Amino acid sequence: MRIERRYTKPDVSPYALIEFQRTKSEIRNPDGSVVFSLDNIEVPADWSQVAADVLAQKYFRKAGIPARLKRVEENSVPSFLWRSVADEAALARLIGSFHDAHERIFAVREPGQRIELSQWKGRVVIETDKPPLRSEREPSPKRANADAESRRVAYFPELGEVEIPVHLGATLAAGASVAGPALVIEPETTIVVYPGWTAHVSELGNYRMELADA
Questions:
Q1: Contacts with 176 (C-beta within 8 Å, 6 or more apart), sequence order
Q2: Are 164 and 181 in contact (CB under 8 A)?
Q3: pLDDT value at position 123?
Q4: Where are the beta strands (DSSP E) in the chain?
Q5: Helical segments of 74-213, H only
Q6: Count of C-beta atoms within a 10 Å radius of residue 51
Q7: At a CB cut-off of 8 Å and minimum separation 6, what does 72 contact?
Q8: Which of 12, 70, 199, 209 could lock 87 by a disulfide, CB 3.0 to 4.6 Å apart?
Q9: How far apart are the first and last CA of the chain?
Q10: 148 closest CA partner among 199, 182, 198, 187
Q11: Do 70 and 85 contact (CB within 8 A), yes or no?
């Protein structure tokens, strides 16, 4: 049986007959941000960019490959096809630098522990002293109905249109009471005291509504 030589020459590596060139492969998001990038990859000169991208993105990097590699020289293949093995010395330096940074930041060094950080979060809960609440209003000498600043006409279903007193909240002292129907005007809101209800002003300036005979 005789096999004739085709496409190669005696004593010449087949790869020496192929012209190579260096190129770059990238994957970008629609917003232009780079997802994957690999520069200076060596591919045959007549390859399209798509072929170079497939080679770079699918075969030049695989999950589980050590982070530090070194090439093993092989005389029978070109350098870009040399196999790679883990560079133990470089990996040891990489691990050492990680533990150095970990000790510097967290003041803990555990070289014998296997560590994988996917997310780190801390939470601190403390109980502080609560300051005493300060009265916002001076106490009223007696819990009598407060004097109205003015009067206006208002409508209530059970009374119809009636003239009711209007009080300014800033003038109501702590302990004062406003019997309905009435209005209390505050800077942020208007309080309607309905017929049968009474508004009592607390020491902190809040209003407690009380229904008669409730």
A1: 140, 143, 144, 146, 200, 201
A2: yes
A3: 82
A4: 20-28, 34-44, 69-71, 84-86, 150-156, 160-168, 177-179, 182-185, 190-193, 197-201, 207-211
A5: 88-106
A6: 12
A7: 82, 83, 84, 85
A8: 70
A9: 115
A10: 182
A11: yes
Residue 142: count other Cβ atoms within 10 Å of its Cβ.
9
pLDDT of residue 116: 67
Supply the pLDDT for residue 208: 92
pLDDT at residue 135 in the model: 62
Per-residue pLDDT tens digits of the chain, which is 214 residues long = 888 888 888 888 887 888 889 999 888 888 888 877 888 888 899 999 988 888 887 776 555 677 778 888 888 777 777 888 888 888 888 888 888 888 888 887 877 776 666 677 778 888 888 777 666 666 555 444 566 778 999 999 989 999 999 999 888 888 889 998 999 999 889 999 999 999 999 888 889 999 987 5
Q: Quick one: which of 199, 178, 184, 188 has its CA closest to 154? A: 184
Q: Give which of 22, 5, 2, 23 is closest to 14, Cα–Cα.
A: 5
Distance CA 44, CA 147 (A): 98
C-alpha 12: how far from chain center: 59
CA distances from 73 to 81, 84, 131, 183, 185 (A): 9, 9, 75, 94, 90
CB 86 within 8 A of CB 66: yes
Tokens linked to 53: 């991208």
